[in-house]
Specification:
Low-confidence stretches: 2-12, 197-208, 218-273
Mean pLDDT: 80
Number of domains: 1
Helix content: 40-55%
Largest sheet: 2 strands, antiparallel
CATH class: Mainly Alpha
CATH architecture: Alpha/alpha barrel
CATH topology: Glycosyltransferase
Distance between the termini: 18 Å
Radius of gyration: 19 Å
Length: about 375
């Protein structure tokens, strides 16, 4: 495990911005053919009601956030009003932390230029402060942190030691014998951002600058990207396909050339706790496989793209660089015919969640 020279992927104090930054970085590394396939896949998941579809083809608020993240990173035009109607059509008082965080992020991505108005309405009409306060487990605390950051809610410190397992990892149940990768990654991110009082270090750019919400750094890319494709109500089945079916390492670099290492996602986002590395990060790093992938927990021998992306994201956030950037693994998860990413190279159907994690992993790889 190598330590990054500059501290971290989270050098801006919102996780949503860091995710969008990594997504945009991953898009820059795509070939023209891969970009066209990705856009076709995302367009194919759009539903006329204003949301994006789950694996069964039904519009779902959880998958809508991933669809919007990908669409924004890919420069696709979005029917923002339809998304807003779709989101507010839900009963917000019935949301758990997962759906509340997806709801807020979807609204902000739909109309980033009116994000301050969205936040004001969310704080007024949604009982999300109680959800943030009630969060206990590592994953709940991570979701509560992202929700608090996105909606502008208070987030207090709580100890996660009760969820530390005997192997040094974290689990989402107390007194567990074995921890998990996703719970540990969540705990690392929460600890990093709890090291400083995030309530006292608000980055006001997130409230007034739509570039911030979309993962654009004004110092790097202050020019709005022109939308390249309209998401229609009835996209063609399977989306756009290119003649060249290769998603090859040699074709990863995008039209704008190699993204300069000094501006890579591991170096261009501010972290409040600049030199702090949680002890769990070292334990998590030991679970890395030879190809850079991660399994869900130490007793599992089948790596997946969600666990791998979560681990890489948390390690980069802690200022640590994995031994292998998982480039071969993530490219093996790409399903060329569909244009999206599956859970693992062994196969399976792609969906918007896996695809978002695949592009995020590409954004952290050393191409």
């Amino acid at each position: 495990m190598r330590e990054a020279k500059c501290c971290s992927i989270l050098r801006v104090n919102t996780i949503s911005h860091a995710l969008m930054k990594a997504l945009r970085n991953g898009v820059r590394r795509c070939s023209d053919d891969a970009l066209e396939r990705l856009r076709g896949f995302v367009a194919g998941q759009w539903h006329g009601s204003g949301g994006f579809c789950d694996r069964s083809g039904k519009p779902d608020i959880y998958y809508t956030q991933f669809g919007l993240m990908l669409a924004r990173a890919l420069g696709m035009k979005i029917d923002a009003s339809a998304v807003e109607r779709f989101c507010w059509a839900h009963d917000v008082r019935s949301f758990d932390l997962v759906h509340a965080s997806c709801f807020v992020r979807s609204l902000l991505l739909a109309k980033p230029w009116f994000s301050w108005m969205q936040r004001r309405r969310i704080r007024r009409d949604c009982p999300f402060a109680a959800l943030v306060e009630a969060a206990q487990t590592p994953y709940e605390r991570f979701l509560a942190l992202t929700l608090a950051q996105d909606a502008g809610l208070a987030f207090g410190k709580k100890s996660l030691e009760a969820y530390r397992s005997a192997d040094g990892l974290y689990a989402n149940v107390s007194e567990a014998l074995e921890g998990g990768v996703n719970a540990t990654a969540s705990a690392i991110l929460v600890e990093l951002l709890e090291c400083d009082s995030i309530q006292n270090h608000t980055n006001w750019a997130q409230f007034f600058n739509p570039n911030f919400l979309l993962g654009r750094s004004p110092s790097i890319n202050s020019v709005w990207q022109r939308p390249t494709k309209q998401i229609t109500e009835n996209p063609s089945p399977g989306g756009a396909q290119s003649e060249n079916g290769d998603f090859a390492p040699s074709g990863i670099e995008g039209q704008r050339g190699r993204y300069h290492r000094a501006l890579s996602c591991a170096n261009d986002i501010r972290l409040s706790a600049f030199f702090h590395i949680p002890s769990a990060a070292h334990v998590l790093a030991e679970l890395e496989r030879d190809d850079g992938s991660f399994c869900a927990n130490p007793s599992t021998h089948f790596p997946d793209i969600l666990s791998t992306a979560s681990a890489h994201f948390a390690l980069h956030a802690a200022g640590m660089k994995p031994r292998n950037d998982a480039k071969v693994f993530v490219e093996g998860c790409f399903v060329e015919d569909a244009g999206g990413f599956a859970a693992s190279p062994e196969g399976g159907a792609p969906d918007l969640e896996y695809t978002a994690y695949g592009v995020i992993l590409m954004g952290m790889a050393d191409y």
